[in-house]
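Weekly sync, protein design subgroup
Attendees: M.S., D.O., the rotation student, P.L. (late)

Item 1: inverse folding check
M.S. brought a backbone from last month's batch and wanted to see whether the design step gives back something sensible before we order anything. D.O. pointed out we never logged the input encoding, so this time it goes straight into the notes. Structure tokens as presented (449 positions):
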């Protein structure tokens, strides 16, 4: 797994507190103070190399602070990400370093920090924001929903990997850091066009967060290895980023291959990479910590006792800060005309009736690798809650967090109806919206931050 840049505070919040913190930007002069606050909250030792990396990371972030007088008691930082959505991408700040001093719990600081972030995002035309949550119970109540899911996969590599398809026969080669950035940057960008939910990566991000020698969570792992499929000089047909660790005969453990990322343009290319990983000498287990739920491996593996899904988990949490802009910012997979009622306690400007009408996208055809069937653009008529106007009666009623879980095509609308979380007022409305939201590949990311 790539280096975790930050966790999230589990601070409880008294939403009825009558005293509010002073919320303002954190200047560069307070960067060390901010990082020390994060270390206090997450019980992290001040280690030189990681401290320097996080300090540089914070320098490039938008930083919102909560101050008690001149004492910094709360911190929220955002990375300037752009997230792939069906048919394109949208600005989506990545929330990290969320910290509240233990002396200032239950004072509404987390509410104030997130409220200021939401206000800024709407004002700046950033309709989404996202995070990896330390505890699911915290962020759902602030309107975040499950934007992507992932699976942990484990392969017994003491025996040859059984496959139902023939692997791509092209050669494999290991890349150095410069080749990785030069060759895999474009290859990763191509995956973003096919699969929603992925932040863009700069060259600096590749070097600073994917190619770090020492793994923060397991110092016994090797530096990152990068293997690419294809002849030298041609665009890679696929690649894998992994680390290894030797076994211990005295403890009866076998060597480990930990896969951090594997991307391939065809199932055959993926099969070649998986076979390579399972044939690395002196190892007996391949563990992939965050694979898409629709990973082709789970279908073309010849022995599912050898290839096991050991767990699934919510990955990226998504927040619709501007519902209308988020819905209009993606392409849709089927014709649709429906009306939604959306409730949003945290961003009241989102609450109201949305009449959705799709039209054929310019040029027709399908959105590149993201849509099922023809691509459609969306037009939204909106009537805010409490305002005069007639958008019609709703066909479906959503809480904003549940709409966030559906908007990339991650969670089927009908599943939420059956769970009692979305109300279907018009029979068939859930199925119609679900078809229009559908994507060819499930949203997925391994970009922890």
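Designed sequence read out in the meeting:
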């Amino acid at each position: 797994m790539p280096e975790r840049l930050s966790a999230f505070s589990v601070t409880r919040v008294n939403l009825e507190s009558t005293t509010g913190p002073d919320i303002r930007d954190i200047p560069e002069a307070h960067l060390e103070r901010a990082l020390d606050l994060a270390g206090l909250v997450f019980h992290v030792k001040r280690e030189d190399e990681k401290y320097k990396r996080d300090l540089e990371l914070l320098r490039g972030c938008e930083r919102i602070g909560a101050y008690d007088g001149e004492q910094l008691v709360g911190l929220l930082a955002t990375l300037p990400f752009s997230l792939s959505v069906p048919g394109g991408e949208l600005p989506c700040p990545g929330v990290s370093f969320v910290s509240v001093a233990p002396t200032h719990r239950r004072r509404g600081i987390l509410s104030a920090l997130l409220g200021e972030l939401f206000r800024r995002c709407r004002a700046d035309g950033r309709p989404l924001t996202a995070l990896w949550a330390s505890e699911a119970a915290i962020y759902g109540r602030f309107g975040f929903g499950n934007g992507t899911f992932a699976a942990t996969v484990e392969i017994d590599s003491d025996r040859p990997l059984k496959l139902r398809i023939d692997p791509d026969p092209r050669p494999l080669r290991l890349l150095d850091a410069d080749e990785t950035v030069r060759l895999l940057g474009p290859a990763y960008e191509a995956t973003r066009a096919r699969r929603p939910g992925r932040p863009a990566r700069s060259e600096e991000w590749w070097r600073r967060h994917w190619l770090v020698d020492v793994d923060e969570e397991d110092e016994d792992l090797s530096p990152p290895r990068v293997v690419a499929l294809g002849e030298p000089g041609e665009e890679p047909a696929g690649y894998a980023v992994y680390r290894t660790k030797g076994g211990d005969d005295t403890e009866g453990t076998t060597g480990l291959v930990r896969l951090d990322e594997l991307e391939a343009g065809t199932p055959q290319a993926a099969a070649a990479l998986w076979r390579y990983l399972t044939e690395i000498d002196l190892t007996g287990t391949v563990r992939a910590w965050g694979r898409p739920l629709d990973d082709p491996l789970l279908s073309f593996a010849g022995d599912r006792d050898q290839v096991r899904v050991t767990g699934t988990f919510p990955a990226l949490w998504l927040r619709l800060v501007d519902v209308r802009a988020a819905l209009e910012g993606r392409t849709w997979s089927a014709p649709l005309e429906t009306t939604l009622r959306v409730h949003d306690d945290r961003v009241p400007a989102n609450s109201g009736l949305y009449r959705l009408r799709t039209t054929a996208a310019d040029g027709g055809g399908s959105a590149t690798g993201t849509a099922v069937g023809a691509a459609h653009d969306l037009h939204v008529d909106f009537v805010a809650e409490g305002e005069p106007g007639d958008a019609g009666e709703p066909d479906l009623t959503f809480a904003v967090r549940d709409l966030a879980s559906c908007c990339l095509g991650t969670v089927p609308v009908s599943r939420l109806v059956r769970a009692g979380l979305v109300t279907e007022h018009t029979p068939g409305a859930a199925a119609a919206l679900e078809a229009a939201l559908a994507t060819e590949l499930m949203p997925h990311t391994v970009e922890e931050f």
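Discussion: Residues 1-18, 363-371 have pLDDT under 50 and may be disordered. The longest helix spans residues 177-194.
Action: P.L. to compare against the previous round before Friday.
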